[in-house]
């Protein structure tokens, strides 16, 4: 990091710290299109995951409900066609022959593993039959769902671990499908037929449905993504063309402005200044040869004319842009110190050693510095002025600060002061932002921020986030923040 100070008697030798990073337009375009396509595919993949994940859970839940509905239907048919006809008064009286008859009818269902437990309840909550003999005759309190089922409500089927009081023989069996359906005895009394079966079958059906549904779903989403890729690439290229056009227009505008400045400076130097210089010599000659009584008049006129010539020459120096390609940014900025030194203003430049800027951004940085220094010289009554340039991986920032009288940013600028307004428009078109912070009596800080690694106007409209008011007419941010963004040099 180099910190260069300039004052009335101090001048620093500078070196160029600006490096040309211009890349062939075709290479840059291909790289940016590839980056845009990569971002599109990444976002598409994330969207695919976000869509597929809830879809998979939905399919899984639907498959579970479908399997439970099948278990409910099978249990209902078993209750109506097998168990119901054998619920006789003898079974209700727990006669051994009736119990053995129902055991024999249900043995195949229990043997093949489709059903692991069977219970038959009467309307009072008493177990009238079970494949576990110790449960027969036991009474359990009926819950609300059981009363609704006995009254004609819908059958229920759940998949869960069994931990209730009547499930002491199923507690260690893991997940079970528990089904309750309504049946009737031979006498027409309402009964509850309950079965338990392994939950592995439901899980297998879920897996089968997922395996069958997920691939076509993912394939459909992938095809949609690929179908959108072609128009996305075309859109990226069209945007690239528009941005390249804006870049070219901005570059032409900057070059036209520089050319106009050169022309005005040349006309002032070759015409107006030369004529006024000749007039000054003529006045000096008349002062020597004229009557003594006219001497003071000629002296005052010649002095005023020489002052005007100096002012015009200073204006010519300000107007004529330096050759940034030849001198470099740092040397060009140091040339701006002359008007400051004449007024006794201390000057400091702080530039990083590894500063990397393309030509367009170099011109814009120079213009920010020049315009801010001109304003500080003419209007701030400052004792010290400083330029600081900072660069990160995302942006380049130049700050010009002074310790002058400052001003109220909320007040409109004087009529005819268009420098910063034009500069703000140019920076905004280049995709940057201009921030002016000032407080009356404490100085002014002008900060311009640009994106790094992109041609000027590449990211038009993308401002630098900061909580301050924005002038909608100029694109300039104005805030009443403190004076200087970094320490200014001591005068002298």
TrEMBL record:
<feature type="domain" description="Histidine kinase">
    <location>
        <begin position="267"/>
        <end position="454"/>
    </location>
</feature>
<feature type="compositionally biased region" description="Basic residues">
    <location>
        <begin position="1"/>
        <end position="12"/>
    </location>
</feature>
<dbReference type="Pfam" id="PF07730">
    <property type="entry name" value="HisKA_3"/>
</dbReference>
<dbReference type="Pfam" id="PF02518">
    <property type="entry name" value="HATPase_c"/>
</dbReference>
<keyword id="KW-0812">Transmembrane</keyword>
<keyword id="KW-0418">Kinase</keyword>
<dbReference type="InterPro" id="IPR003594">
    <property type="entry name" value="HATPase_dom"/>
</dbReference>
<keyword id="KW-0472">Membrane</keyword>
<keyword id="KW-0808">Transferase</keyword>
<dbReference type="GO" id="GO:0016301">
    <property type="term" value="F:kinase activity"/>
</dbReference>
<dbReference type="InterPro" id="IPR036890">
    <property type="entry name" value="HATPase_C_sf"/>
</dbReference>
<keyword id="KW-0902">Two-component regulatory system</keyword>
<feature type="region of interest" description="Disordered">
    <location>
        <begin position="1"/>
        <end position="28"/>
    </location>
</feature>
<dbReference type="InterPro" id="IPR050482">
    <property type="entry name" value="Sensor_HK_TwoCompSys"/>
</dbReference>
<keyword id="KW-1133">Transmembrane helix</keyword>
<feature type="transmembrane region" description="Helical">
    <location>
        <begin position="40"/>
        <end position="59"/>
    </location>
</feature>
<protein>
    <submittedName>
        <fullName>Histidine kinase</fullName>
    </submittedName>
</protein>
<dbReference type="InterPro" id="IPR011712">
    <property type="entry name" value="Sig_transdc_His_kin_sub3_dim/P"/>
</dbReference>
<dbReference type="InterPro" id="IPR005467">
    <property type="entry name" value="His_kinase_dom"/>
</dbReference>
């Amino acid at each position: 990091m180099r910190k260069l100070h300039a004052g009335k008697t101090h001048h620093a030798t500078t070196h160029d710290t600006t490096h040309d990073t211009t890349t062939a337009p075709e290479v840059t375009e291909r790289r940016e299109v590839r980056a845009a396509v990569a971002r599109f595919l990444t976002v598409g993949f994330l969207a695919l995951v976000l869509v597929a994940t809830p879809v998979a859970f939905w399919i899984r839940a639907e498959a579970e409900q479908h399997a439970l509905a099948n278990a409910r239907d099978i249990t209902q048919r078993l209750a109506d066609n097998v168990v119901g006809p054998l619920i006789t008064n003898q079974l209700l009286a727990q006669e051994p022959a009736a119990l053995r008859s129902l055991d024999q009818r249900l043995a195949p269902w229990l043997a093949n593993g489709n059903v692991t437990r069977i219970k038959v309840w009467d309307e009072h909550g008493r177990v009238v039959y079970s494949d576990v003999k110790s449960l027969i005759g036991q009474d359990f309190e009926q819950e609300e769902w059981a009363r609704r089922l006995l009254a004609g409500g819908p059958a229920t089927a759940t998949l869960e671990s069994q931990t209730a009081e009547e499930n002491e023989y199923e507690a260690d069996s893991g997940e079970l499908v528990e089904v309750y359906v309504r049946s009737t005895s031979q006498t027409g009394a309402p009964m509850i037929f309950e079965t338990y079966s392994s939950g592995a079958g439901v899980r297998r059906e879920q897996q089968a449905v997922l395996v069958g549904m997920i691939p076509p779903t993912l394939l459909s989403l992938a095809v949609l993504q690929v179908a959108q890729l072609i128009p996305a690439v075309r859109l990226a290229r069209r945007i690239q063309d528009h941005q390249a056009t804006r870049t070219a227009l901005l570059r032409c505008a900057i070059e036209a402005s520089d050319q106009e400045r050169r022309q005005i400076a040349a006309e002032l130097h070759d015409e107006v200044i030369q004529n006024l210089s000749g007039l000054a010599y003529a006045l000096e000659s008349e002062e020597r040869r004229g009557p003594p009584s006219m001497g003071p008049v000629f002296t005052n006129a010649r002095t005023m004319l020489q002052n005007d010539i100096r002012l015009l020459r200073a204006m010519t120096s300000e107007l004529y842009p330096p050759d940034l390609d030849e001198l470099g940014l740092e040397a060009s900025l140091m040339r701006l110190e002359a008007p400051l030194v004449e007024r006794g203003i201390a000057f400091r430049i702080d530039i990083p050693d590894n500063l990397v800027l393309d030509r367009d951004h170099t011109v814009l940085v120079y213009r920010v510095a020049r315009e801010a220094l001109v304003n500080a010289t003419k209007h701030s009554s400052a004792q010290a002025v400083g330029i600081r340039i900072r660069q990160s991986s995302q942006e380049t920032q130049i700050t010009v600060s002074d310790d002058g009288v400052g001003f109220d940013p909320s007040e409109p600028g004087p009529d005819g002061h268009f420098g910063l307004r034009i500069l703000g428009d140019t920076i905004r078109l280049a995709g940057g932002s201009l921030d002016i912070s000032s407080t009356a009596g404490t100085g002014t800080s002008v900060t311009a921020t640009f994106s790094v690694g992109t041609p000027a106007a590449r990211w038009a409209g993308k401002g630098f986030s900061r909580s301050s008011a924005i002038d909608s007419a100029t694109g300039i941010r104005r805030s009443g923040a403190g004076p200087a963004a970094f320490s200014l040099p001591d005068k002298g």
